[in-house]
Amino acid sequence: MRVPFAAAVGLFFTATYFLMAIFAPLIAPYGMAEVVGDVWEPSKIEIMLGLAPPGVTESNYWLGTDNIGRDLLSRMIYGGRTTIWIATAATVISFVTGSVLGFLAAVLGGWADQALSRFVDLIMSIPSLIFALVVLSVMPVTVPVLIVVMGLLDATRVYRLARAVAVDVNVMDYVEAAKLRGEGRGWIIFREILPNALSPLIAEMGLRFIFMVLFVSTLSFLGLGVQPPAADWGGIVKENKEGIVYGIPAALLPAFAIATLAISVNLVADWVLNRTTSLKGGRG
Question: Fewer CB atoms < 10 Å away: N or C end of the chain?
Answer without folding.
Answer: N
